[in-house]
Specification:
The complex is a heterodimer of chains A (249) and B (283). Chain A is built from 10 helices and no strands. By secondary structure, chain A is mostly helical. Chain A has a single domain, classed as MetI-like (MetI-like fold, Orthogonal Bundle), CATH 1.10.3720.10. Helices cover 33% and strands 23% of the residues of chain B. The chains are: A mainly alpha (249), B alpha/beta (283).
């Protein structure tokens, strides 16, 4: 174990210990901030419930991400490939992205119901814009000389796109995906919190009304872990693919 | 030699300008206008020339002489408003990777492919079997002096090395003619000079026909058999001259009086055409 790791573990242990003590001594109200042991107890006593919640959220996030990525990249590629399309659509997409999407959520509920479908739909609209914008940027940013080169060696339109344009646009697409997928996760959990039948967001909001603060905190911990995990994974992927972005060839 | 040759319409000059071999590429009355809703701009006007098999011909011109237009038309990437391009007596109206290869100013390599993969790429698009194209790629990289760099990625290579990969890639297509668009324009002067020599070595070894488009008068004179001088907008051929220096050429010729005279002649051609100061390199 490295010294840095040891030190950070020690710091965490100290924080948890202090927190536990303050809670037990009654300095912190357990309704506002329950002791770590209470959060742990909550996790243990309702393990099944949490597992089910995680499964539901994971399912919704995966489907929403798949749709957002497919929709965002194809829309972005289509618009980015036509120069005018990119110029015309970029401000519209950016404006849509800036609108607080949550205002639309009641409509999603009427359209898609209380179940997973409305969470997936909301996750998709949360994540699709950054992905589309990243793809437009990437595709429209490909140097015209590369395309001249591709045509000169006899690439078909499809080859031009899959062999030259798309790989060159990939770093930008992945940056869009990193932001978009993170927003997808947030979108799904927020939608679950507003009204739903299950999922991590649902657990947060349900246990809050029951004053099961330990359960609420553990659910939040799960949500954070989700977002963190996704972000770490995508940052890793992004770094891997952006290696050639800055190299001038 | 030395005096300007009249435009090709003159039947006498056409006769007297005996070409050593059959022309690989023949350009006939090429004119190109860029038109939009309001007006049209003439980029090229009545360009005619031919490049004999195995020769090295340069086109010199100031910025805005329509050289990239010319290149795209020659490569069959864009139709001309008027006139024809013939390679081996066949009209070119679409990209012909087996006949024409382009070497660009920026080496235009694909950054996720190593040197060998980059050289193989056009062959892969052409459907050449893997083993065959790998062998060819290694041969070509060896020819351009990059035997030890086949697995290097573009980001690990210097500007001059990338350009060599790009030349190897052009050669691997085994085209009838290699079009070079300001291939050493992005290099510093030393590498540029070295690459010029290197190019002559490769040209001598392969016997390929080369058409080089450049800003640099000296580069054109040092490398070529024939130099075509293009005017600024619209691009017209204002002079064509045969370069008399025997091969192999050494750098000493650059300092010779004859070289200076030819350089001045081209310089003046461009000057009278009000092309001065438009990105022309006099060195």
């Amino acid at each position: 174990m490295s010294i840095a790791l040891k030190r950070s573990l020690l710091i965490w242990a100290a924080i948890l210990l202090l927190w536990e003590m303050l809670s037990r001594l009654g300095v912190l109200s357990s309704v506002i901030l329950p002791a770590p042991s209470m959060i742990f107890d909550a996790a243990k006593s309702s393990a099944g419930e949490f597992m089910e919640g995680i499964q539901i959220t994971l399912y919704e996030v995966l489907i929403a991400t798949a749709i957002a990525v497919a929709l965002g990249t194809s829309l972005g590629a289509l618009l980015g490939a036509s120069g005018l399309g990119a110029k015309a659509s970029a401000p519209i997409l950016a404006a849509l992205f800036a609108v607080p999407l949550i205002t639309w959520y009641p409509l999603f509920m009427t359209w898609f119901g209380l179940g997973s479908a409305s969470k997936i739909a909301y996750g998709v609209v949360s994540g699709v814009f950054p992905i589309a914008i990243g793809t437009i940027d990437g595709v429209s940013g490909v140097d015209g000389q590369r395309i001249v080169f591709g045509r000169s060696i006899g690439c078909s339109r499809a080859q031009l796109f899959t062999r030259i344009i798309l790989p060159l646009a990939l770093p930008s697409i992945i940056t869009g995906m990193r932001i978009g997928i993170a927003l997808c996760v947030i979108g799904v959990i927020v939608a679950e919190m507003l009204s739903s039948l299950g999922g991590v967001g649902y657990l947060i909001s349900y246990h809050r009304t029951m004053f099961n603060t330990g359960h609420v905190y553990f659910s939040i911990l799960i949500a954070i872990t989700f977002a963190y995990g996704v972000n770490r994974l995508l940052t890793f992927v992004e770094r891997k693919f952006s290696a050639w972005r800055d190299t001038d060839t | 030699m030395g005096k300007p040759i009249e435009p090709l319409e003159d039947p006498v000059t056409m006769m007297t300008r005996a070409l050593p071999a059959n022309p690989v590429i023949e350009v006939q009355g090429l004119t190109h206008d860029y038109a939009n809703v309001k007006n049209s701009v003439r980029a090229l006007e009545d360009i005619s020339f031919s490049v004999p098999e195995g020769s090295f011909v340069s086109v010199v011109g100031p910025s805005g002489c329509g050289k990239s237009t010319l290149l795209q038309i020659l490569a069959g990437l864009m139709p001309a408003s008027k006139g024809d391009v013939l390679v081996d007596n066949k009209v070119i109206n679409s990209p012909q990777p087996s006949k024409i290869a382009i070497v660009f100013q920026d080496a235009n390599l694909l950054p996720w492919k190593n040197a060998a993969e980059n050289v193989e790429f056009p062959l892969e698009i052409q459907g050449v079997p893997q083993a065959e194209r790998a062998k060819l790629a290694h041969e070509m990289l060896e020819l351009v002096g990059l035997k030890d760099f086949v697995s290097h990625y573009p980001s690990q290579l210097s500007g001059g090395m990338r350009q060599r990969v790009s030349i190897a890639r052009g050669l691997a297509q085994d085209p009838r003619i290699i079009l070079m668009d300001e291939p050493f324009g992005a290099l510093d002067e030393q590498s540029r000079t070295k690459m010029g020599q290197e190019l002559l070595r490769i040209w001598t070894k392969t016997g390929k026909t080369i058409l080089l488009i450049t800003h640099s008068i000296s580069e054109a004179l040092f490398l070529s058999d024939q130099v075509l001088v293009l005017s600024a907008r619209p691009g017209r051929i204002v002079d064509r001259l045969d370069v008399p220096f025997p091969r192999p050429r050494s750098f000493d010729i650059i300092g010779s009086a004859e070289f200076g005279a030819l350089r001045n002649r081209i310089w003046n051609q461009l000057n009278t055409d009000d092309a001065m100061g438009q990105g022309l390199e006099g060195i």
